[in-house]
Design goal:
This is GCN5-related N-acetyltransferase 10, chloroplastic-like isoform X2. It holds the Pfam family Acetyltransf_1. It comes from Nicotiana tabacum (Common tobacco). It is a single chain. The protein has three helices and six strands. The protein has 127 residues and is of the alpha+beta class. The chain has one domain (8-126): Aminopeptidase. Helix 2 links the parallel strand 3 (50-58) and strand 4 (86-91). It is globular and about 45 Å long.
Length: 127
């Protein structure tokens, strides 16, 4: 699949009407994704591009409601709609379980580091 333009999306989660009394119309979570074409492709058989998860954030009070999991499922559906077979994320160790439970696998390569903070690990999901 070749790109003619940048494909980028932000998917958001709002509280249900049950919770809107306490939280109003505020967002409770968001995930942003973009189509990429770089050296990660060496780990993705037959792929020319892939969908990369730039960030995934959920308000602390809503984490018990699996909002992040729901947002990742929405990413799966959007990636399929766009015609892609792979989603990739650079996951922090604290988030491994979230991505493993969502079907992501660790790509065996050197751990990544940003600004000397916790190492990130490249993870991929084939959809």
């Amino acid at each position: 699949m070749s790109s003619c333009c940048v494909r980028y999306a932000v998917l958001v989660a709002e509280p249900s009407t049950y919770y809107s009394f306490d939280f109003g119309k505020h967002l409770v979570g968001a995930v942003d994704i973009i189509v990429q074409k770089d050296d990660v492709l060496q780990h993705l058989p037959e792929a020319e591009e892939y969908v990369y998860i730039l960030g995934n954030a959920v308000l602390k009070n809503f984490r018990i409601y699996k909002v992040a999991t729901t947002l990742l499922k929405a990413c799966d559906e959007l990636a399929k709609l766009w015609g892609f077979k792979y989603l990739v994320v650079k996951a922090h160790p604290d988030d491994f379980d979230l991505y493993l439970d969502a079907g992501y696998e660790v790509i065996p390569c050197d751990p990544l580091s940003r600004n000397g903070k916790k190492n990130e690990v490249l993870m991929v999901k084939h959809i």
